[in-house]
């Protein structure tokens, strides 16, 4: 250990450890307490203690191990003093065999077993609803405070606190086991985790409401979580596919809106400002993810993003490849939204008339009723065909169905351009 | 170990119109289910089938009414009580409960100590 450190350096080191080590420390502490609330308190106290102790002793060389030891010591003390009360607490279920057998994923650097995978699959257990899974993951795996999780989902803090409490109570009372499921069940459970990460990312990438198009905080958390999963499950092609998708999509973040906050289409974006390092990493992951048979939906979505990322200019886009990839995607993951995107790609590969024909096949799709991107796509194809009156109607309909302020401004701009135009 | 009640909710109308062959299959399915519970590491503690909701009588305070507590398309038609180490085991058992005209709900039994 180094000598005493100044307050700013310690605060920065604790904040860094919070970002990197929270999940590890909590997961290792839950194993001692078998009660999530007690573990959370002990971990919070350990981080608070680090703020003062590290000023005296210096920042330890392995902050994660220091914090884990501190949190587990507090947990053991809490257990000793809990006595009678604790007998009434429903405790987490753990498989005894696992506690006995050394875990191959154990991280020697910490000196404690790496329980992060069991923490994340428990948070995303299918017996919890999706909103609860996302909230628990942000709170327990990412270490966000209840107030921060509430802000992420635009609900009040008491509402989010109630949601978290209910979910934790169900884990304990219904005995959702705190363990990594056996290999036969693992892929389905990992799918649920990936769905949570993907939802977090899409919520951040195109905020459903509000003034800004992108919520950087949510996007960053989603990428961080996906990197954690990649570290825990390095051979899983679906994880590789999702990480690729997130990186390739987020590589365009700086160019999705103009200086005035206006939405810029892929066609208008300055490709020289795309994040080349993220694209290179994403493309390598796509290659790996596509080797799985059948490829995961995320790998195929990432492959489509890679076609765009690798085209030097909009005019160079390989639309035939994009249409083909959407076709494969529709076969592994049938969804009207995929069919809609495929129709838009057909509009570029074979012209707006062909795109419109593909789109019209989806008009009766009940799942697309009320989906603003359908009339918006239709409006664009009609505009390109010179059918301005119909285009105007479709833009107006899209505007009615779009709550995001930046997207609304884009549609309103298209309408104004039509009004000023040649018709 | 914990106890879970598996409540079977099904569309009664389907049973009312089912052929004897179908009813025979359902009975055989339940026998097979009961024989297979221990393979999952759980134990069957009990279970019954209920007469249809047309035979139900509801009582709320002094008021007695003809019929079930709530009218729903899928009604409670039977239950199994199982003992299992955790929810994953209980859900594995629940997936094998025959309920071709509906589904099942798994509820942990409250413990007092």
Brief summary of the model shown:
The complex is a heterodimer of chains A (423) and B (113). Helix content of chain A is 66%, strand content 0%.
Any overview of this molecule?
The complex is a heterodimer of chains A (423) and B (113). Helix content of chain A is 66%, strand content 0%. With 423 residues, chain A is mainly alpha-helical. Among the domains of chain A are: 7-89, Orthogonal Bundle (Rna Polymerase Sigma Factor, Chain: A); 358-423. The radius of gyration of chain A is 25 Å and the shape is elongated. The N and C termini of chain A lie far apart (75 Å). Chain B has 113 residues and is of the alpha+beta class. Chain B has a single domain (2-108), classed as Dimeric alpha+beta barrel (Alpha-Beta Plaits). Chain B has helices at 12-16, 20-36, 87-95; strands spanning 2-11, 43-49, 57-60, 63-66, 74-84, 102-108. Chain B has a 4-stranded antiparallel beta sheet with strand order 2-5-1-6. In chain B, strands 3-4 form a two-stranded antiparallel ribbon. Chain B is flat. The interface between A and B is small, with 12 and 10 residues. Chain A: Keywords: Repeat, Sigma factor, TPR repeat, Transcription, Transcription regulation. Chain A: Residues 189-289 form the DUF6596 domain. Chain A: Residues 121-171 form the RNA polymerase sigma factor 70 region 4 type domain. Chain A: Residues 24-82 form the RNA polymerase sigma-70 region domain. Chain A: This is RNA polymerase sigma-70 factor, ECF subfamily.
Specify the number of helices of chain A: 20
Could you give the distance between the termini of chain B?
A: 14 Å
The whole-angstrom Rg of chain B is 15 Å
Number of separate helices of chain B: 3
The percent range for helix content of chain B is 25-40%
CATH topology of the domain at 7-89 in chain A: Rna Polymerase Sigma Factor, Chain: A
Measured by DSSP, the beta-strand proportion of chain A falls in: under 5%
Number of strands of chain A: 0
Instruction: Determine the CATH superfamily of chain B.
Output: Dimeric alpha+beta barrel
